[in-house]
Design goal:
Helix content is 39%, strand content 35%. A four-stranded antiparallel sheet has the order 2-3-1-4. The N and C termini lie close together (8 Å).
């Protein structure tokens, strides 16, 4: 199993709007690609910054090949949509992991 982990630091002033958009728009769009079989969405509790809050979205896919197709065919447009909507209000860190 391959885990695509996206950690996002979002400005507190738009946190509620961002969380709602992630739940109703972005995550469903990512899942519609057919790449991922499930996801988990977490708020990071150990993050201590008065101006921002961090969230972690974990997407699970069975193979690296499927993930690579996602990167090639879907990720650029999805990432650009997120960047444009929340420009200057977030930072994102991407990690790819393999279950052992």
């Amino acid at each position: 199993m391959i885990l695509y982990n996206v950690t996002v630091g979002i400005d507190k002033e738009i946190e509620a709007v961002w969380v709602e958009w992630m739940k109703t728009t972005h995550i469903p769009e990512v899942l519609k690609t057919g790449t991922f079989i499930k996801y988990k969405f977490y708020k990071v509790l150990s993050h201590d910054d008065e101006g921002s809050v961090s969230y972690c979205i974990q997407y699970f896919t069975p193979t690296l090949e499927k993930f690579n197709l996602y990167l090639k065919d879907h990720a650029p447009a999805l990432m650009e949509h997120h960047r444009a909507k929340f420009e200057g209000k977030h930072v994102a860190f991407l990690t790819l992991l393999e279950e052992v």
